[in-house]
Amino acid sequence: MSLYGLILGICFVIGINYFYKTNKIIPKQKETWFIFSVLISGIIGARIYGVIANWQYFSQNPIQILNLRGGGLGIYGGIIGAIIYLVLFCLKNKIKFLDISNFLVPIIPLCQSLGRWGNFFNHEIYGANNQPIWLYESIAMFLVYFLIKKIKFHPTGIYLISYGIIRFVLEFLRTDTIPIFYLSLAQILSLLFILFGLFIIKYENSHH
């Protein structure tokens, strides 16, 4: 196994362990299928984003699309893929989306922080003048992890806003972005995350 894969595996174990210890919403008989489905949805979404982000390479090497150990997993795609599954799960099981997301979100920044070290071992995500963008994001997300633990309210909203701001700023330093007009694709998604996070906080405040 590559070190990249090992890091991702550690993140999955941490997230799954957290889920089983804190879950009070998902019925016990659905826990394993739920966590499996979230992970698969996240991986598929992350790979789709990664392929789009590096289309020039993958279009010439399509067989490498299946080589997950080689890197190329976009965290935004992973988050969006997982959210899509959560929405469908909540609709089917008549569970409030925020009830699930609020108990899942606190562990995500820690997993993201650790996961960025996979980029280090894969020699990925460096900016101009060889700046370690992966390290900047790793440190920032570690701080977000403690921020959410300390505040203990509006975790989903705070996470979306925090990561949106962090990623928006760091995108200016990256050289592997997907340009759309004056911003990158990730920056547009960052702005949407920030707006969604603000909406969630306003919604929660108005329903308490």
Distance between the termini: 48 Å
Order of helices and strands: HHHHHHHHEEH
Query: For the report, how would you describe the main beta sheet?
Result: 2 strands, antiparallel
Indicate the multimeric state.
single chain
Main-sheet strand order equals 1-2
- Fraction of residues in H or I helices: over 70%
Task: Explain what the structure shows.
The chain is mostly helical. The protein is built from nine helices and two strands. The chain has helices at 3-22, 31-53, 55-58, 75-93, 97-104, 108-121, 133-151, 155-171, 185-206, and strands at 179-180, 183-184. α7 (133-151) packs antiparallel against α8. It starts with a helix and ends with a helix.
List the helices and strands and how they pair.
Elements lengths: L2 H20 L8 H23 L1 H4 L16 H19 L3 H8 L3 H14 L11 H19 L3 H17 L7 E2 L2 E2 H22 L2
Antiparallel strand pairs: 1-2
Helix pairs in contact: 1-6, 2-4, 6-7, 7-8, 8-9
Index terms:
208 residues, two-stranded antiparallel sheet, 70% helix, mainly alpha, globular
Give a brief rundown of this model.
This protein is mostly helical.
